Amino acid sequence: MSPTFGVQIRSFWLLFAAIFVFILAMVGVGLFISAISKTQQQAILGTFIFLVPAVALSGYASPIENMPNWLQWVVEINPIKHFLIIVNGLFLKDMSAALVWLNLYPMLIIAACTLAVASWLFSQRLE
């Protein structure tokens, strides 16, 4: 499969699965922020407070290996980091399904935890 710019996608279905899980994780984070916010302004500020460091610490701008050890542990709960590794691997390195799984399962855990906690918080708010 070759899109308009001639970039080869090595495994379309692995990329599709990664995009789906990434969207689940980010929706979970967004719903969690929404659940702990009382106003729309708090939700917008909470999203900004999460997204700016998440993008800056995702490995997009600077390598994660150059960060301090304690910060490398914090970055492990960043779904953007795992998604960038998968996309980079599938587009440029012909990443295997086993290596995709190593970065997919943390996003699944993040999605499950944030969606579960957000739904519980929303149900508590409705009672």
Alpha carbon gyration radius: 16 Å
Query: Which secondary-structure class do the elements indicate?
Result: mainly alpha
Proportion of strand residues: under 5%
Largest sheet: none
**Helical content band:** over 70%
Poorly predicted segments = none
* Count of alpha and pi helical runs: 5
Averaged pLDDT: 90
How many independent structural domains? Answer: 1
Rough shape? globular
The oligomeric status of these chains comes to single chain
Termini gap:
51 Å
DSSP strand count: 0
Give the H and E element order. Answer: HHHHH
Keywords: Cell membrane, Membrane, Transmembrane, Transmembrane helix, Transport
Protein name: Transport permease protein
Domain ABC transmembrane type-2: 1-125
Organism: Gallibacterium anatis
Task: Explain what this protein looks like in three dimensions.
Belongs to the ABC-2 integral membrane protein family. InterPro entries: ABC-2_transporter_component, ABC2_TM, ABC2_TM_bact-type. The chain is mainly alpha-helical. The protein has one domain. The protein is 74% helix and 0% strand. It has 5 helices and no strands. It has helices at residues 12-36, 40-56, 69-75, 79-93, 97-126. Helix 1 packs across helix 2, helix 1 (12-36) packs parallel to helix 5 and helix 4 (79-93) packs antiparallel against helix 5. It is globular and about 50 Å long. The chain starts with 11 loop residues before the first helix and ends with a helix. The model has no long low-confidence stretch (mean pLDDT 90).
SSE blueprint and pairings:
Blueprint: H1 12-36, H2 40-56, H3 69-75, H4 79-93, H5 97-126
Helix pairs in contact: 1-2, 1-4, 1-5, 4-5
